[in-house]
From TrEMBL:
<protein>
    <submittedName>
        <fullName>Transposase</fullName>
    </submittedName>
</protein>
<dbReference type="InterPro" id="IPR036515">
    <property type="entry name" value="Transposase_17_sf"/>
</dbReference>
<feature type="domain" description="Transposase IS200-like">
    <location>
        <begin position="9"/>
        <end position="124"/>
    </location>
</feature>
<dbReference type="Pfam" id="PF01797">
    <property type="entry name" value="Y1_Tnp"/>
</dbReference>
<dbReference type="InterPro" id="IPR002686">
    <property type="entry name" value="Transposase_17"/>
</dbReference>
């Protein structure tokens, strides 16, 4: 069966998910987390992908990125996956596959969903019950985006920069986005779009992305 073509729009952000095979752990310890981030930084720079947000969980990873070209994300993920699997298999005395097939991705309408996806990604450890505050999880971009910690691989998206003129203003406005819980329908819509390889946005954005023609759902309901 032919693979479904990935959606792409020039300059459009993408939400990317990479899962361990059979949802098994693919990051065991701090060395693994650091290695993944190091390889991600290198691959993103090599293939011209801007990283806006990320979270590394034990059995999956979320990224919010903007690629320079249509193949930039796929090449980044191939490069990253290859290097990390070599590291993981050697470190843990194992062989074979690590990832659950192809990574999943969805286009993100910046005006309507970009900051919601930032929040969705960085709140993963809180929803999973690992920490009570996103600031306490060391393997996400929250400390950079919300607290100003230098994370060299991060590139602020224009919608993030619009939160305030100065860094402290932006960080304060960003932290305010995390107050309370995300509505259940927003969580479901973000998950569905990525799992189906669709898009997040209004009707105009979906039409521009060709989502209707592909039979993929990503609109807010």
């Amino acid at each position: 069966m032919a693979r479904t073509p990935r959606l792409y729009l020039p300059g459009c952000a993408q939400h990317v998910i990479q899962r361990g095979n059979n949802r098994q752990a693919c990051l065991h310890n701090a060395t693994d987390f650091r290695a993944y981030l190091s390889f991600l930084k290198d691959a993103a720079a090599k293939h011209h992908v801007a990283i806006h947000a990320f979270v590394l969980m034990t059995n999956h990873v979320h990224l919010l990125v903007t690629p320079e070209g249509e193949k930039s994300v796929s090449r980044m993920m191939q490069d990253l996956g290859r290097r990390y699997v070599q590291h993981f298999n050697y470190s843990h005395n194992r062989t074979g596959t690590l990832w659950e097939g192809r990574y999943k991705s969805a286009l993100v309408d910046s005006e309507n969903y970009l900051l919601k996806v930032y929040r969705y990604i960085e709140m993963n450890p809180v929803r999973a019950g690992i920490v009570s505050n996103a600031a306490n999880y060391p393997w996400s971009s929250y400390q950079g985006n919300a607290l100003g910690k230098p994370i060299r691989m991060l590139t602020p998206h224009l919608e993030y920069l619009r939160l305030g003129k100065a860094g402290e203003d932006r960080q304060g406005a960003y932290r305010a986005l995390f107050i309370g819980r995300m509505p259940a329908h927003e969580l479901a819509t973000i998950r569905e779009a990525c799992n189906k390889g669709g898009a997040l946005g209004d009707e105009h954005f979906l039409a521009r992305a060709g989502v209707r023609a592909a039979g993929l759902v990503g609109s807010e309901r």
